[in-house]
Amino acid sequence: MSSPEYWTKPQPPDAAGSESPPGSPPAATAARPTAEQVIAGLRATSEGGPDLVQLLTPEGERVAHPHFDIDITPEELRGLYRDMVLVRRADRESNALQRQGQLGIWVPLLGQEAAQIGAGRAMRPRDMAFPSYREHGVAWCRGIDPTELLGIFRGTDHGSWDPVATRFHPYTIVIGNQCLNAVGYAMGQRFDGRIGDGHDSADAEATVAFFGDGATSQGDVNEAFVWGAVYDAPVVFFCQNNQWAISEPMERQSRIPLYQRASGYGFPGIRVDGNDVLATLAVTRWALEECRSGNGPVLIEAFTYRMDAHTTSDDPSRYRLADELEAWKLKDPIERVKAYLHRQQWADRDYFEEVDRESDALAARLREFCQRMPVPSADRMFSEVYANGSPVVAAQRDEFLTYLSQFEQTGGER
Amino acid sequence: MTEVDVRSRPRATDGSATGQGPGKVTIGKALNLGLRAAMERDPKVILMGEDIGRLGGVFRITDGLQKDFGEQRVLDTPLAESGIVGAAIGLAIRGYRPVCEIQFDGFIFPAFDQIVSQLAKLNYRSQGRIRMPVVIRVPFGGGIGAVEHHSESPESYFAHTAGLKVVACSNPVDAYWMIQQAIESDEPVLFFEPKRRYHEKAELDLSATPAPLHSSRVLRPGTTATLACYGPMVKTCLEAAESAAEQEGHELEVIDLRTLSPLDLEPVYESVRRIGRLVVASEAPGESSIASEIAARVQQECFYSLEAPVVRVTGFDTPYPPSKLEEEYLPDLDRVLHAVEQSLGW
Ligand SMILES: Cc1ncc(C[n+]2csc(CCOP(=O)(O)OP(=O)(O)O)c2C)c(N)n1
Ligand SMILES: [Mg+2]
Predict the structure, then answer these.
(1) For A277-301, how does the pLDDT look when each residue is reduced to its tens digit (9 = 90+)?
(2) Helix (H, G, I), strand (E, B), or coil: what is residue B171?
(3) Do residues A182 and A288 both lie within one domain?
(4) Domains of chain B, CATH where assigned
(5) Nearest atom within ligand 1 for CA of residue A246
(6) Can you name the residues that pair with A238 across neighbouring β-strands?
(7) Looking at residue B119, what DSSP letter applies?
(8) The domain containing residue A15 runs over which residues?
(9) Pocket residues for ligand 1 (CB within 6 Å)?
(10) Which of A26-30, A179-183, B267-271 has the lowest mean pLDDT?
(11) N or C: which terminus of chain A carries fewer CB neighbours within 10 A?
């Protein structure tokens, strides 16, 4: 067992004060992985390691898995393919809109389509999602139109969808915050009797918290693991390990693969091929079902890759090699599904062309919408600061609007 | 107060081998040179933060420093602000002088507990046995068209906390000296950097004598009214003074506060006693703010000299708005001049 996939820190001699068994190394030394273990761990980090759950290889071959197999109809798989193509197209178009000055910034999801569509499609309408800021694919699955994401990045709003009706919380930019919020929501689901035996499973509920590999270092995320465990909360911690937190590689955040963290908190952790939409769907479905039946939480590490820059403001050539991207292109999440659909003759050329046409139309609609987005009026700034209003804010609003109206009267530029 | 004259120390190689200095530099570059000088002078100075090593920071303030000083002096830390500050405290106890970078103003709050509960209080709790020579660098303020949490002005929280020193630079020359003075100080310093001004340039004369860290300074003398400001608002106020001189013949005196805790208000009192009218400008929300504190103290110290109430021109008491509204939110030249008019019209 030379891989940190299985490396666990040796336990100290038991608390009763008994001596270490003869021949065992001193704890301080034993607690350090060997050089081989470290190297194997790094390799495991870049290749996924032996525990990676995969149902569709990068070449588009279906493989069996003892625990997480899934029956998928041709129609379902075509649907997953379509989802991924459309969200990728919306992502590329939004990226281009930023380049053309229509958006202030864009956060690309390129490469993470399978992780997000797999997780998003595993959810039922009653389930709740707490995204970070890159979950455009999950938003899609929650019925949020890509146009509704634009305001955040154009600077016209902080999120325009209805988080209550869609059960898709506003994007959270402060790394890790939403994980605790998700746990609280899931505790509520449990307190409301929405999980467990004897419950009509049709209206059972669970929650998914989305976050990144970098986020796993935050106190909030670790506290969320503790709280989720202590309250048996029906929450799936869905970590997209895209290998990078801006410029910092995985090794800056962890010594062991992330999914193994779960056991320390007392719940299962599974590493899934996040570029395999089938595997992600299967694992997330299972995890949600565990949660709905009272066996939460579950940690899923979706092993994937951020194929573009962190955001449009970022320049990845400063910190990572182009070769790495080339290697990951061979594991593209969409190509493998396309290859499989082909091979199975579940989709023909007409179908693929139809999806392409649909994505062209989506891109055109997105562009058109973006260019017409109105600038919000100044009073928006003062609205809903408090649920019940505030005399301070009201006075500032009135004074400022009066001040602005002077410029309108004189027709002057400010 | 222990003011350190960084000038008297052996100076770092900051591209100025000839002694003439690096010429015109931006605030960002001046900070980079200042950090480099401090690191060369003292091997105990280490930098900690997210993306500050290989990338050189998202604003490139630490560009090239990891390459030159190694990974043990420039740490690309795990993504955890409480960790950054909490570990910096431990390192400081152990004799290091950590300089922490918080990537954006809005991300300092995970570290709030460590800053307020430990960093600010350890000197007091240990009755001076434990010093906290920790600097926390915070790019702050708006105006860059960013998404939420990237444009905030949280300085008042820290000025409100006993045990912390708080400063804000506004130009390259100050940036260069103040960062070194902050690092040499044995006290914890929250160091606010005006991110929308990072690219502003000025001549950096390395032979100049830097003003003490905790001192404010008159940047432009005047007779009509006084503008007290700091950080990104300094440029706005200087422009307002320029415009008022041209258009109205008004001579506005501009004071760069530089130090927010402790405030150095003597130059402000002196100015108000002479001129009688004061406008305080800041991007931060106005309620319970540094601007409020200045207004209160000036009316206490200069009551009989005031010709008008102190006017505050600040961000509104709302969350920072979506960026398409930030031009409205941030006090601009017109709002500063409007505040001057209010004062003159009293
Ligand atoms: C509390 C906090 N600190 C710092 C940042 C700045 N920041 C934004 S994204 C990011 C990296 C996040 O990496 P990861 O969690 O892996 O998610 P990814 O962006 O790769 O999806 C950082 C440091 C932030 N948004 N919030
Ligand atoms: Mg990541």
Answers:
(1) 999 999 999 999 999 999 999 999 9
(2) coil
(3) yes
(4) 6-204 (3.40.50.970), 217-344 (3.40.50.920)
(5) 11
(6) A210, A300
(7) I
(8) 1-32
(9) A 134, 173-175, 212-215, 242, 244-246, 306, 310; B 50, 79, 81, 103, 107, 110
(10) A26-30
(11) N
ipTM of the complex: 0.93
- Say which residue the tokens 């240990």 belong to: B126
Minimum CA–CA partner of B144 in chain A: A104
User: pLDDT digit string (tens) for A223-279?
Assistant: 999 999 999 999 999 999 999 999 999 999 999 999 999 999 999 999 999 999 999
- Give catalytic status of residue B149 as yes or no: no
A331 and A386 within one domain:
no
- Structure confidence by residue, pLDDT tens digits, A139-165: 999 999 999 999 999 999 999 999 999
The pairing of strands B201-204 and A248-249 is unpaired
Residues A73 and A84 in one domain: yes
What is the helix (H) or strand (E) element at residue B23, kind and residue range? Answer: strand B23-26
Substitution target from A177, A317, A319, A401 for chain B, most B beta carbons within 10 A = A319
Q: Are residues A131 and A21 in the same domain?
A: no
pLDDT tops 60 at residue B15: no
Residue B139 φ then ψ, to 5° = -65, 125
pLDDT of B12 higher than 50: no
Together in a domain, A140 and A24:
no
Contacting residues of B for A404, CB less than 8 Å apart: 328
The verdict on A259 and A384 lying in the same domain is no
The predicted structure's pLDDT at residue A39: 59
Taking the C-alpha atoms of residue A301 and residue B82, their distance in angstroms, rounded to an integer, is 24
Q: For residues B311 and A167, give the distance between their C-alpha atoms in angstroms, rounded to a whole number.
A: 45
Q: Is residue B89 classed as helix, strand or coil in its secondary structure?
A: helix
Does residue A40 surpass a pLDDT of 70? Answer: no
Which DSSP string do the residues of B275-304 spell out, in sequence order? H--EEEEEEEESTTSHHHHHHHHHHHHSGG
Number of domains chain A is built from: 3
Burial of B217 (0-12, 13-18, 19+ CB in 10 A): middle
Ligand 1 pocket: which of B79, B81, B113, B147 to mutate (most atoms <8 Å of CB)? B79
CA dist A394 and B199 (Å) reads 36
Residues 6+ apart with CB under 8 A from A408: none
- CB-count burial class (<10 Å; 0-12, 13-18, 19+) for B334: middle
Gap from CA of A67 to ligand 2 centroid (Å): 27
Q: Give the tens place of pLDDT for each residue, B168-209.
A: 999 999 999 999 999 999 999 999 999 999 999 999 989 889
Q: Rounded to a whole number, what is the distance in Å from the CA of B41 to chain A's nearest CA?
A: 28
Contact criterion met (CB < 8 Å) for A318 and B287: no
Residues A166 and A146 in one domain: yes
- Global pTM value: 0.92
Question: Are A178 and A248 contained in the same domain?
Answer: yes
CB A240 within 8 A of CB A212: yes
Q: Which residues contact B219 (CB under 8 A, 6 or more apart)?
A: B234, B238, B254, B255, B256
- Chain B residues with beta carbon closer than 8 angstroms to that of A390: 317
pLDDT reported for residue A14? 43
